Amino acid sequence: MRGGRKLEKLLIQCITENQDSAYRLAYSYVRNKEDALDIVQDAIHKAFLSIEKLKQTGSLKSWFFRIIVTTSLDLIRKQKKVRVMDDENLEFVLPSSHDHYPNLDLAQSLEELPDKYRAVIILRYFEDMKIEEIAEVLHENVSTVKTRLYQGLQKLRVNLSEKDQEEEQR
């Protein structure tokens, strides 16, 4: 029982130290504040239920992030419904043609990437994780993560340069 109590304390510490990163990771999948918060809450619950399955405490953060990823993917699968936005909401969300914000272009281009590329880029550059940690979180081998990172960055560059060309033509 004593070992379980120590693991729980380590898990609480891990969750506390990484709560912002966990939220951003969940949000990168679902792009919705409430769903991202639900995912983090659900992942915390799952982590406490399965803490005794954890073999090495050194990989606690990667293990918790893996739970975030699988919980996010589960929610996406459940939701597979199209959300229709009325024109008024669409106008509010999308910048008008004369506004140009490079950061919005980056955010939009990131959102347009397939999940497998977006997750790797976000974990690497926004969460500052090493390639090996990303591989552990996503249950992929290191060479797959490197390939996806390279391909994702290539796709991102193409998307951003296309947006720049569109902007220049206006």
Automatic annotation (TrEMBL):
Molecular function terms, GO-annotated: DNA binding; sigma factor activity
InterPro entries per UniProt: RNA_pol_sigma-70-like (IPR039425), RNA_pol_sigma-70_dom (IPR014284), RNA_pol_sigma70_r2 (IPR007627), RNA_pol_sigma70_r4_t2 (IPR013249), RNA_pol_sigma_r2 (IPR013325), RNA_pol_sigma_r3/r4-like (IPR013324), WH-like_DNA-bd_sf (IPR036388)
Superkingdom: Bacteria
UniProt KW Transcription keyword: yes
Pfam families with a match to the protein in the record: Sigma70_r2, Sigma70_r4_2
Sorted UniProt keywords: Sigma factor, Transcription, Transcription regulation
Record GO biological process: DNA-templated transcription initiation
Keyword flag Nucleus: no
Gene3D superfamilies: 1.10.1740.10, Winged helix-like DNA-binding domain superfamily/Winged helix DNA-binding domain (1.10.10.10)
RNA polymerase sigma factor 70 region 4 type domain boundaries: 105-156
Record-stated family: Belongs to the sigma-70 factor family. ECF subfamily.
Family annotation (NCBIfam families): sigma70-ECF
Protein name (Swiss-Prot/TrEMBL): RNA polymerase subunit sigma
Organism name: Paenibacillus glucanolyticus
